[in-house]
Amino acid sequence: MELIKNKSNTLFWLFIKQLLWLSAYILIEIFAFIILFNIGLNSGFILPANYSEHYLEVNKNIISQSEPFDKSLIPFTCKYGLFDFDGNYLSGDFSEDMADDAKAFIKDSKASNNLFMLIERANGYCVVQYDIYAHFSSYTLHKLFPKFERMYLILFFIIFVVIVINNALHFGRKLKKQLKPVLEEINQIQNKELNVERKHSKIKEFNDILLALYDMETALSQSLKKEWETEQNRKSNISALAHDIKTPLTVIKGNSELILEEDNIAEIYQLTDIINSNSDKIERYIKLLIDETNNTLTGGNEEQITLTALIDGIIKASEVICNLNGIELITHNKVFEVNMIINKDLVERAVLNLIQNAIEHTNSRKMIKLYFECLENKLVISVEDFGKGFTSEALKYAKNQFYTEKSERSQEHYGLGMYFASNVAEKYNGGITYYNKPDQTGSVVVFEIKICLAKFNELHNC
Predict the structure, then answer these.
(1) pLDDT of 2-33, one tens digit each?
(2) How far, in Å, CA of 103 to CA of 191, rounded?
(3) Reported pTM
(4) DSSP assignment letter at 460
């Protein structure tokens, strides 16, 4: 498959690659800021952190001898104050708090929280406050950004955040692009657009999802196709079944016309029997049409009945069908008396369908055996015939709706008997099993339902 041949990476390596790119961009940013800072220092655009201290040390004598005092000798990165020998503040650009701190420094150099340099003059002291931070060499830039290092760090952080966000957006776009085939495939499956060109992703995990979706798509396509074929087959067979009603109607109409012209009473009785038989056939056809068109299980309501009464009804109806077809019915009844809640007509119809199927396949020994027994809380009914048994295909599909081994509909066989009986069994939490007898010809169909007890018989627990 082309999808498998496409080169792909795992999500793990994709994350690692993206992380490496992010690390590379951050390292580039760090090196760029270091280089720019060094260029600024070397070009004089940025003053080093010890600039003020060094300047004051170099120009200390000039400042002490300046009369009158020249404030231009004080760097713009510093502040100064002039004091007399008694510690009184005379002039300068100190704030009130800074002046008080400078007075304390004059008395005790360790009492100050700021960095001061004391320069003794002829009529007092000059106290200069400085710091050990880098500054712009431009007075204008210094006034705008007096805390150069803080501004530099903020700028670094802003660019760092931009890099991280951009990296995340890029990674998100890449993932979205690779995830797009998966989302499109899911959308196509939801809309049942199953015959489209297959896509692929460059991420292994997404490809694995696509492969799973393609398998799902194939299964869904087959399921929809099978469902469509089953529905078409169902419609076709129901239409054919409805069409076949014309045959007994034609027989009834023809024999009715003959009755009008017949004077012999014996012939009239014979024609009447034919009409009655075909009327029953029409009734059965209509019931099949109603049941299978509506796809429902009909035939009476739930009622309380004894198990033996249910079995007796099934045996009597089975005997009538077998007698009409010249089949000997042998029954074995091992059930006990117990009250139960069940739809008697529905269960009886299901078992009679199995009896009818057995009659159609009994072509030797002219015998059918019917077994009834209770196993735990289940009623088990077995129908044994002595025909040719199930084919290998029938063993797989016998319970499917409209399945029949006959190429043409004959003997009223429409592939509905096993299907209907299976639905009834499932309605009562049971099921149908069937198999060929290993030691002789013929097959066995086992109809099993759970007994919904109305009242236990204390002597016999089914």
Answers:
(1) 444 455 677 788 888 889 999 999 999 999 99
(2) 85
(3) 0.47
(4) B
